[in-house]
Structure formats: C-alpha cells, structure tokens
Fold these 2 entries.
Entry 1:
Amino acid sequence: MIHKTALTQFRAALHREKERRKKVEDFYAWERHARDNQLPPPGTWHAWLILAGRGFGKTRTGAETVRMWVHDKGYRHLALIGETELETRHVMVEGSSGLLSVHPPRERPLYESSKRQILWPNGAVATCFSATAYEQLRGPQFDGAWIDELAKFRESDKVWDQLMFGLRLGAAPRVIITTTPRPTPFLKQLLKDPNVAVTRGSTFDNAQNLAPPFLTHMERQYGDTCLGRQELYAEIVEETKGSLWNRVLIERAKADFKKGALQRIVIAVDPAVTNGPKSDETGIIVAGLTQEGIGVILEDLSGRFATHSWVQSVVANYHHWKADRVVAEVNMGGDLVEQLLRVHDPSLSYKGVRATRGKVVRAEPIAALYEQGKVWHASTFPHLEEQLCSYVPGQSYGSPDRLDALVWALTDLMLTPSFSGQIWGS
C-alpha cells in the first residue's frame, strides 16, 4: 500500500513537472505569441524599421529578433544602441521586455554591466552603446544591430553612419530599428531607402496585453490630437507650415525639464465670455520661473467651464501652487474678472492685462524663448501642444485660449522689466 502511494505521488509530481516545463516552453515560444507585424518580414532587406505606437510591443519584438539571430541564424557580434547608456541598459537589456527577460533560464545570457556586454553560452556577444557617445562605434565590427527609439536621437544620422561602417561581418549583416516616429529628416530618409523594410503598427494592435482603462483613457485624451496620431497611431505628423512653434521645440522643452526651486509662480487666465458646447475655452496655465531664469509650464487647467467653475479652479490652484499672482486678460470681462476672483478670495494677488498689440506680436517673443531653450514643460500637455504647433499667424481662426494664457504667463514671468535683463542678456 505504501509502495503504491509513493508511486502515485511520484507520477503526480512527474506530471506536474512536465506541465510546468510545457508552460515555460510555451511562454518563451515567441512564434506562437507574436502577431504577424512582430515577425521579420520576408526579403533581402538590410534594415527592418518598426514604426509603432506606445505599447505596441516594439521592445519585445527587438529583443526576440536578436534572440532569434543569436540562436537560429548564427549571429555572433551585435550592437545594442539606445538614446543613453542608461536607457540601453534599463530598457533593451534589463527591461520587462528586454533581452534578459525573453530568454528561458537555460538560454539566458550573462550581462556584464562593467564591460557593457551580453554574453551567450554559444559564444555570441552584444555590446551596449549610447547614441550620445556614438564615437564608441568606431573600431568594433558587427553582423547585427538593434537600435531603439532612433527618432529620439539628437544626431541620428551620425549614429547611423558610424554603425554602417562597422556592420560588416557575416554573409548578410542586418539591423532592426524600433521607434515611435517623429518627423525628423533622417527618419524620412530611411523610409525612402529601398533596402529598408518598414512595419507600421498602433498601440491598439496590442490591446489584448494592455489594460482596458489605459486604452480608453489614451483614446479619449489623445485620440484627436497630433500627439495621439504620433504616439498612439505611429503617424509621422508633419509640422504646420508657418507655425511659431513646432514639435521639435516642444519635445526639447519636455526633455530639458529638471525639477528645482522656483523663484516665482503665476496663474494666467484667458477667460471665455460665454459657456456652451461651441463656446471658446477658458485658458488657464500655471507657470513658474527657475532660479536660473528658465520659464516652466507646470500645468494646463484649461477647458470649457461655467464662470463659477473656472473662478473656483483658479483660486484653488492659486493656493495649491502657492502662486505669487493671477494674471488675467480683461479685454472682454474688464473689471468683472477681478471682481469674480475676489469674491472667492479678497486677498488674492491680481494683475489685469489688456491686449493692445496683436496676438502675433505678443506670441513671437515667447516662441523665441522656446527656440533659445529657455522654456521647459514639466509634463505632456496634448491640447496645449496642439494649439501651439497648429497656430499660424494670419491664417489660424478661432481663439487659441491655451496659447494666449501661456503667452500671458511667460510674459509676466520673463519679459517684464525686472526680469527681462536676466533672460535676454544671458
């Protein structure tokens, strides 16, 4: 009886182990889980360019392609290139969809961070590089490479040139590029290259692996914006000809942002005079000035509100941000704007401003500050960015209220006499 019981337990344990191994094998069987647009295209391409939205599975696709090259195609010397050394490591190597994660334990390579190398049991080696130090690509030679987020590189053409000189081993050296698109000249050049195979995809292609609330929020918040077309649907959104702002300026303003002490904070308001489905928005922008004289857009609170709602929002955020002043355009509301605000807070510091010059004259100096790298964005503000990048002097119609509020805020912080010397003289 004891013998039979032990045998039964042994068989049950053996069955469980077989099931566990089967699940592990299935988990790492990329060809079973990958969508068609995540598998290498046919043909004799030299580069495979994947232009896809956030959450598409670009990183997993890049890592799995490298894994396949190493284990099935005999690749032995590879380059991994991210925007920075930190991103190469944290995303491409150690990330949840990076190279270490996509290998089953028995195949997993060794990562030697001090040497910036990944070593496979079969002798293959991948070396990590940063686009900001592309000169390190001089000298080494490769039979394969993976570039992640190429459209973010500041000098993508120079990175590419150095890689191409070194991609000279094997019978058919190849490179896979995984990136969310931006309208950069080099990316457009790649799209015209007959030796580049292009795969396009959207965030929603990977819906089964993404949280439904995330998808709902993305579609509602960004679906009808240029940012959404770019970041979700992977379109190359061309710049609006003649606009004072462009995507490059906005992206740089976000990339340069650093948290730090602020010497002043203001809330600027461009109030709407009516409230209805077709009414103008009330522009409400929170902005600050760093100790070094950099303007920082902290929050965009704009929207269509009843009068009491936007007044309450401005007063509440005045205290939340410990702002120094509320700046409000009074062309339409006159003294009523100040009266409404003081009903809620009589001690509020207030400055009314009147547009005596044209919008272009007011906006151009602020756009110039962006060009000089003297304005940062603390976050992504899709609707504000849409207004900035689509406003063309003399051609745009409607009232860009968010833009107006931003201009008033930065004018008060940076172009008033007490601060203009510090900003323009630097």
Entry 2:
Amino acid sequence: MRSGRVTIADVARAAGVSKGAVSFALNERPGVAVDTRERILKVAADLGWTPSQPARALSTSRAHALGLVMARPPEILAEDSFFPAFIAGIEAELVGSGYALVLQVVAPDREHDGYRRLARGGRVDGVLLTDVRVEDSRIPLLESLSLAAVTLNRTHADSPFPAISVDDRPAVTAAVRHLIELGHRDIAHVSGPEEYVHVVARRTAWEQALAAAGLARGPLVQGSFSARGGASATRRLLDRPEPPTAIVYASDIMAIAGLAAARERGLEVPRDLSVIGFDDTPLAAHVHPALTTARTDVLGWGRAATRALMALASGRAQPDVECPPAELILRDSTGPSNPQQQQGSQQ
C-alpha cells in the first residue's frame, strides 16, 4: 500500500472489489453479498479508513427519481411496442409514490454516457436496466458509479443487482410443439441481436423443442427487431432451395413484416406458410390473418421492476422476482403443413 492518506480506491484494491461496492457496503445498500460486505468492512477497518462526513452525506442523499436509459436505433424504438407498455407500467407504479422517472434516450454507442449523466450530481436513486446482454459491461459501470439497479432478466455476467425476470421459453416451446402437431417439420427461426439474454433464451427454446421432437434444427436468420429486418430475414428464408413451412419470429413486428414478405412471393398464410410472433402487440390481433404469438404482461413487468427499485432506493434488500412466464396465443396465422403447395407457389 502506498504511503499517505488511505482512500476508497485503496480499500477497493485491497478487498478485490470496485469502489462502488465499497460505497454500497459502507452505506448498507443492497447489491453486495453478505460475505463480500463483511470482507470490505474488515479491510476498511484494518486500513483505518473512514470516509469524510460530507462524502458520506452525498452518497446517502436521495433524489426520489428513477432512471431509464434507452439505447436503440431511433427506427427500432419507433416501431417497438415494448417500451411504451413498460414505461406505462413504471408510471402506474410511481403514481402517488413521490418518485419521478428520468428518461435518457441515447445513441447505442453513447449508452455508458447516459448512465454517467444520471449518476452525476445524484440525479437518480437507481436505474432500470433493460435489454440485458449476455456479457453486460453496464454492470461494472453501475458498480463504479455507486448506482443501484434492477435488471430485466438475469445477465450471465456476475451481477450484484436483483433481477426481475420473465421466462420466454415456455411460449416458444409451445409454439414449436403447436407447429409440429400441425405437421410441420421444417421450422425456421428469425431471432434478434445475439447479445441480448432474451434473444438467446428464445433461440435456445426453439432449438431444444425441435431436438426433443427428434427433428433437425431448422434454418436460423438473425433479424434486428425492426420491420425491415423481419422482411429481409423472411425473404432469405423463402429464397432457400427448400424454404421452411413455418417460421417462429422473436418479435411481432418482424412477424408482421414477414407476412407481407410472404404475400409478395404469392404465398398465402397459413395455407402455404405458418407464422408465429412474440410480444402480442395490440396490432397482432388485427392484421390479416390475425397473428399467433406469445404474450407477456409487459405493463406488469414494469410495475414489478419499479417496486423492486424503489425498495432498493429506500435501503431494503430486494430478492430476484419471477414474473408470470410468456404464454402462446393461438390465432389464424398457423395451419397444417402444406409443403407441396408451397413449393408449387415458388415456381
């Protein structure tokens, strides 16, 4: 240890943790494991370190505001129905609570700056972390900023923050089984960006459901959660020498664009191609044919995440929470397999 006054960085280095974890432990804030907290406090005592009273007062002050950073391309945000429903859930929970929502919309390559702005000057007491990644660099960033957080789904990275999760897999599994019962054997999947935890979960459920039925994995094409991405992915699948007879999409917007792309090729849904989406957006029941899709309670998810973050902000421990899993909603865009008729329409 260098000579001179001991600092929080010295304590963090000696304890093998971030400066944010030291701050969390000192102020008895949730987000640090019990054994880690005890180790930090012991190291601090051994080094004779105590923070200045002004610094501690600043670290424990409350803004009575929660933060949300949205870092998706504008065209995807404009099309995505998830965030309006999720924000409605947040606001429904904040009514009468004395808390406000501080929203930051940033370019994807400026996402970390959004969190730094929220942390600067104590603008928020914590943040809701959406679009959780398999390896999420925001987790250590938030620790270093001493910013409490609740994640939407559990990241694969080591995270001290509670997760409010929805299991997408039952609905995707049910979708594949439904198609198999209808006679489909070549079932494709249009996924979203592979870095997202929920994208991996949906793709894995599709793969495992096919394997459980003794079927080979169908073709996989990555989309972008946009209409353009869904249409492009569908055309790639229909251009195959042996196009699939059914497609499971990772979002409704991609599936609805896929319906239009199929009609461009002269295909009739579901006679020639069965289509399943995910999200059960308001439009899903009103397109033609009405879209078979997976439904989650996004508004309820927003409320649950907000309750958890307010509990953290007030200093109460918060466990992980499992919201009701996604469920399959059957409508008119799926039907019996008809590969001969589909192949004929391709000629």
